Amino acid sequence: MISRSEYCVVACAEAWRDNGEVLASPMGLIPSIGARLARRTFSPDLLLTDGEAMLVGLDGTVEGWLPYRRHLTMVTGGRRHVMMGASQIDRHGNQNISCIGDWARPARQLLGVRGAPVNTLNNPVSYWIPRHSRRVFVEKVDMVSGVGHDRAAGARFHRIPRVVSDLGVFDFATPDRSMRLASVHPGVTVEQVREATGFALVVDDDVPYTREPSAAELRLIREVIDPDGLRDREVGP
Fold first, then answer.
1. 215 in any annotated domain
2. Is 0.70 topped by the overall pTM?
3. Among 7, 124, 133, 162, whose CB has the most other CB atoms within 10 angstroms?
4. Is residue 49 part of a domain?
5. In whole angstroms, what is the distance from residue 18 CA to residue 95 CA?
6. pLDDT at 17 over 90
7. pLDDT at position 124, please?
């Protein structure tokens, strides 16, 4: 039986399909497993980093040096594809990881804006949200950290390929670049997704299920990349 977490891993991996030789920067467990799965299968040219100063292979072997100057060059030239988290995200893909409430007197302080504006304006950024709810998928973010489609005019490398949650996969393949339900994970209904979303999603007449991992992909996930089953701690069965 394929678990919900395994559907999420494959959905995250698909974000890097056909990316070529770009730096994959997954933030979080499920995206990290997805990036490694993508490199082992349909995106063998992906570059992985140890998060500090080295490019590494699938087993952690050092493949190259990645000094900060070179890293910034990749970031500002569209040669990096990040998968970030989001405390809030809206219909146009604006993301908030800074605060909840008025920024001058927030009800809750979060990570801060950090590198989100530079990331989103200069290279592709996808999002992973392990708990889909109206608190996260909101009509309007309290503060813009990551830049959405409605604020990115003139940004050469701005692109949000996909948003993955524990309920489904979302994209912005609509005339006004608002969020569309691209697929639901098996066991999830379209109505459940609508109910858990704080704005009106674009929903086509026929919404497919997220694709199943192949037998080879399942073996890699279960036996090679995540044999301890850590993925199920982030997304329950």
1. yes
2. yes
3. 7
4. yes
5. 25
6. yes
7. 93
